[in-house]
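Ligand-bound model needed. magnesium ion.
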Amino acid sequence: MSSIDEFALIRLLNGGKQSAALAQAAGVVTGIGDDAAVVEASPGSHWILTCDTMTEHIHFKQITMRDRDIGYKAMASAVSDIAAMGGVPRFALVALCMPGGTKVERVQAIYEGLYECASRYGVAVVGGDTTAILGELTLTVTVIGETGLGQAKLRSAAQIGDAVFATGYLGRSAAGLDFLLEQNLSSGQWGDFPEPIAPLVQAHCRPEPQIEAGQLLQRSGSCRALNDVSDGLASELWEIAEASGVGIDVMEERIPVADELAAFAQAQGKDPLDYILYGGEDYQLVGTVPAGDAVELQMRFKAAGLPLHVIGYVNAEGSGVRMVQTNGYIVPLGKKGYNHFSGADGKGGA
Ligand SMILES: Nc1ncnc2c1ncn2[C@@H]1O[C@H](COP(=O)(O)OP(=O)(O)OP(=O)(O)O)[C@@H](O)[C@H]1O
Ligand SMILES: Cc1ncc(C[n+]2csc(CCOP(=O)(O)O)c2C)c(N)n1
Ligand SMILES: [Mg+2]
Ligand SMILES: [Mg+2]
Ligand SMILES: [Mg+2]
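Prediction:
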């Protein structure tokens, strides 16, 4: 980053039309430009605070994501944690660390994606920080959301007898990643990918945080535990099981498998379930609801034009997370998935 100074860069990245519109958003008292932002909470609400980091070569490479996608996904993954609490995202802070020599056009494209996602989910970017780094490009997005007093949906709220649900297809992002890593295309070589690849690449590069589903679950009054899928279905179910002190049985035949995932996995000689259970970065929600309320919840989702799949049940504590296979056998599901510091399953980053 040689041709532009820090302060001019901050103005450049945050001076577009979308950022100006968001800076006027309700609740922004003082936005970008002072030592800190000042925002107003809605009466009777709790703040929800979360941050997620994306770093080059761990979360993306130039062959797996275009610059715009990087910004979009960094915002989307943080917004997803607000969805996982049943909240409404409101404000964001963005920390950007760039190695020397980063092109201004690259960060501008990243920010276009970031603001595109912020605008889609009604998030006002109210500040952040910009530094050089003797390492890889790193983007940390902090999102502040709101929910009614005591209404946040926790991982620890599952109870024995609950049904376990998922809000959509899983495994597509990891399959898209496999495809992109294999193709080794530079972003200039990206074109329109044919079926069944396009939706897999889209799932990897442009995940859709389930804010609407999270809101619906929160308003339903029946949803108990909730979590978003960043590290893979098995890992997220283990988080709910451990936090709630219960066991979870997931039924293989109930897990939805997207046609494009099935086709891709078959062509690769792989099992789609591996992508679903251990892939991650789907940013769908998984959670629990009293079994007797599950059908009504599904009707509410149907009326809103959203899917809700019942994929299993919560059972007595101590049994961990298991899968009831289509062949009738019950097998334990490993507590594995994406883990930054574990190479044990070959999926870790460092
Ligand atoms: N370095 C840290 N310092 C303090 N708290 C942390 C740190 N890293 C994570 N946490 C906290 O640990 C909990 C779990 O974090 P984690 O990042 O696993 O959740 P997540 O964002 O849902 O998952 P993912 O990062 O896979 O999207 C959260 O409450 C988070 O705020
Ligand atoms: C080049 C490349 N290699 C591997 C992956 C897969 N990956 C990285 S981090 C992560 C979990 C979510 O991150 P976090 O836990 O930090 O929120 C996953 C599944 C990728 N996206 N790009
Ligand atoms: Mg995190
Ligand atoms: Mg999460
Ligand atoms: Mg997260």
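The radius of gyration is 20 Å.
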